[in-house]
Amino acid sequence: MTGSTARPDFTAHPDFTAHPDLAVRTLGGSVLAASDESFAEKENLLNPWAPAFDAGTFGPKGQKYDGWETARRRPGPDGALGHDWALVRLGLPGLIHGVVIDTAWFRGNYPPHASVEACAMDGYPSPADLATAAWTEIVPRSALTGDTSHAFPVQADRLFTHVRLNMFPDGGIARLRVHGEVIPDPGHLTGLTVDLAALENGARVTGCSNGFYSSPDNMLFPGLARNQADGWETARRRDGANDWAVIRLAAPGTIALAEVDTTHLKFNAPAAFALTALDGGTETPLLPRTPLQPDTRHRFRLASPEVSHVRLDIYPDGGIARLRLLGALTPASEQVLKERHRALRAG
């Protein structure tokens, strides 16, 4: 590896938004239910793109918003006004480090206050099941302003699977982001061949040479890349060096198959790549410098020692849509995952 010595650390960043959004739709998040969605659909809360707005786009329900908007509440017979809520299943369960409530484009119709609760339930609970869950307030009732992204750090040392967004009393919220650390269910990993580089299994990019166009964590997302922007892409190098990213695997294991995918990268794929196992100060080549083709899924069989971190070098620069490292956890890794999951579930 050559080039820049800068090593951005994406897992120890003081800003919690450096952690993945556990609720985003592209990672499997879903809005299961809401008290009301008269003006704009609840599903918009988890859209992966930035909120958009086009003035004067009126439909049968009024101005169209890229967010969730409820009807205006009126006091009931008992004089109570009540409040609106949306129930979200996280795409990836984990430790929540912070929440973003974004009222983008809602200027005269935003809620003055909001709060967030979280819970953990095994399996695939319905909204009715979740009504009986033990909910923990992770963001207390807090003031909001219009057309603003509000960031709320969260201190909670336990695993959560669902969150409930409450707004008081009504109005519109464009996006809900729930940033945190993925804690996979070890029952889905142990004794199987799994993708050790998958974000959903707990892998993360811990550093890279450049992330000018998009985050290197995108390489670890599930499914195929939707477009050119849905992977990792670096700026054009002019110094004769190469770009790289270091991936902390879901847990130490042995790799049997590597997949390097340049889908959609037709004119900006790297010319070649290499894979290297990292263990402290020791580097072990896994795949030597190997040519890549644009817009292609490449697969390579390999036999690796026990590996905890892998460096992907690309030559000289460009984009990678997805990186898959299929293999098996070691027995010791399986035990560590089980113990951590058990402790975080217990809270």
UniProtKB/TrEMBL annotation:
EC numbers on record = 3.5.3.4
Gene3D superfamilies, alphabetically?
Galactose-binding domain-like
**Reactions this protein catalyses:** allantoate + H2O = (S)-ureidoglycolate + urea
Q: Does the keyword Hydrolase apply?
A: yes
Q: Name one GO molecular function term.
A: allantoicase activity
The alphabetical list of record keywords is: Hydrolase, Purine metabolism
Q: Where are the transmembrane segments?
A: none
Residues forming the Allantoicase domain are 28-182, 202-328
Question: What Pfam families does its record include?
Answer: Allantoicase
| Lineage top rank: taxon | Bacteria
| Pathway membership | Nitrogen metabolism; (S)-allantoin degradation; (S)-ureidoglycolate from allantoate (aminidohydrolase route): step 1/1
Into which family does the record put it? Answer: Belongs to the allantoicase family.
**Could you identify this protein by its name?**
Probable allantoicase
Gene it is expressed from: alc
